[in-house]
Amino acid sequence: MQLPTGGKAPAQVPGSLESPEYDPHKHRNRPHPTTNAETLIHLLKGSLGTGILAMPNAFCNSGLVTGTVATVLIGILCTYCLHILVKAQYELCKRLKVPILNYPQSMKVALEQGPAIFRPLAKYAPVFVDSFLIVYQLGICCVYIVFVATNIKQVADYYTTPIDVKYHMLILLLPLILMNYVRNLKLLAPFSTLANIITFVGLGMILAYVFDDLPPISERELFGSVRNFSLYFGTTLFALEAVGVIIALENNMKTPQNFRGWCGVLNIGMFVIVLLYIIVGFFGYIKYGPEADGSITLNLPQGDAMAQAIKVMFAIAIFITYALQAYVPVEILWTTYIEHRMKKNKLLWEYVCRTGVTILTFILAIAVPRLGLFISLFGALCLSALGIAFPAIIEICVLYPDNFGRFKLVLLKDIGIIIFGCIGLIVGTYVSLVDIVHSFQ
Q1: Amino acid transporter transmembrane domain: which residues (predicted)?
Q2: Spatial separation of the C-alpha atoms in residues 356 and 359, rounded to whole Å
Q3: Has residue 331 been placed in a domain?
Q4: What is the model's pTM?
Q5: 7 within domain boundaries
Q6: Residue 424, domain extent
Q7: In a domain, 304, yes or no
Q8: In 26, 291, 410, 426, which residue has its Cα 20 to 30 A from 190's Cα atom?
């Protein structure tokens, strides 16, 4: 692993929280740092995408009561795991006297300093974490392509001869490639602002449909089946836990010390996100019941002008956000595995990498155009590990051997989180894959 500039790691007693007076935040030198407001805008846009529109479908799998309580609990768990991940990364940076560590580097260093049983795994950790991050972010990009194409198709089919959704995806390919050529988060901030405005206006218009002639709650299930809860879990985790984007945002902040804290950027963003998810999921399920689709926009009346406007608006917002989600896999692939191998024409090869990532997501979207199941699969498969289990493992290693508090409550808590994440990964992935196979049959 190549550590960022900042010198060699000082001698340190493993597990000790006493570090030299080195503040990594003061030594960061990002070429295009984002402000607190820009980071919050990116955070909201990264999580207020297709996930929130899938929440009525998620509540259909969980029931009203289970869905509401579980969304709050999952939101708290995701936010907490992000806090412990960012805090552990900061502590590792202090120990190594480096300004910044990305997620894979943090996992490697933590395993090297943790219990002996973890240390042989350290050399494989960066590739392992990178693989999960790349698969998850590519999965989001696939979902975005399917979402945009499906919504545009519904509108276009009303006015012209219907064509297969795959042709709509093909039309999107060149614009998506060009959008993915934007090379830094600073330049993407205005696009995220526009997408946020469109999203909030569009959500307001959707809720106008939802609250019009709302059926009584008694017609809906309050508690779902245990099997379907795994689909709810995957969908909600996919919607809430944009871990790759969030870590990239914290790493690119001008004032990263403002990311955490009770009134920090992370808590403010996650509070707004969880509240909106509950509102859309709860009332969207009451309105559409078992007919709730993988995106609530697909339940809106096809011939209604306002409904068509909503579909086009969200298609534009999600299209704009594609570049933000593709930023993470491009950054990992280019900076970690490709750039140092290219001796000449680096800029050209970076654009080749960006083009290749876009084409790959396009091919995957063509292959599996099942929006709801796609969302649930990638949420369960990747985020159970990236957003829940891995942060707890890193915290155990950072606090090892004697900083777990009285009765080792922190250790027991982290073990519980790891077990929960592993169960979510195995069960959620299995159920999603089975349902995907059945949907093709």
Answers
A1: 33-433
A2: 5
A3: no
A4: 0.83
A5: no
A6: 35-124+183-312+370-439
A7: yes
A8: 26
Structure tokens at 431: 């159920």
Phi first, then psi, for residue 213 (nearest 5°) are 55, 55
Question: Could you tell me which residues are beta bridge partners of residue 34?
Answer: 253
Which positions ≥6 away from 11 have C-beta within 8 Å?
Answer: none
pLDDT tens, per residue, the chain with 441 residues: 444 443 444 444 444 444 447 889 888 887 778 899 989 988 887 777 778 889 999 999 999 999 999 999 999 999 999 999 999 999 999 999 999 998 999 999 999 999 999 999 999 999 999 998 898 888 888 888 988 999 999 999 999 989 999 999 999 999 999 988 988 767 777 887 888 888 889 989 999 999 998 999 999 999 988 888 988 998 888 877 677 778 888 988 999 999 998 889 999 999 999 999 999 999 999 999 999 988 899 999 988 999 999 999 999 988 988 887 888 899 889 988 998 888 888 899 999 999 999 999 999 888 876 767 777 787 888 888 999 999 999 999 999 988 887 778 999 999 999 999 999 899 888 988 888 888 777
Q: Count of domains in the chain?
A: 1
